[in-house]
Design goal:
It contains 3 helices and no strands. By secondary structure, it is an all-alpha fold. It has one domain (about 1-54). The mean pLDDT is about 90.
């Protein structure tokens, strides 16, 4: 049961992060946020760095 709770918490964390990214995309002042936004670029770089460590 503990493993299932941990799995749900991990999924909730991923969904919360996704919601934050989507909210940012809707309000980002960059004309093309997926290409030009420094906030999203930093987030993507951090994600890729974490994936390399795994």
């Amino acid at each position: 049961m503990g493993a299932r709770v941990a799995e749900c918490e991990a999924q909730l964390a991923r969904l919360t992060a996704a919601r934050g990214y989507l909210a940012h995309l809707l309000s980002c002042p960059s004309e093309h946020p997926t290409d030009e936004c420094p906030y999203l670029a930093e987030e993507i770089d951090e994600y890729l760095a974490r994936m390399k460590r795994v």
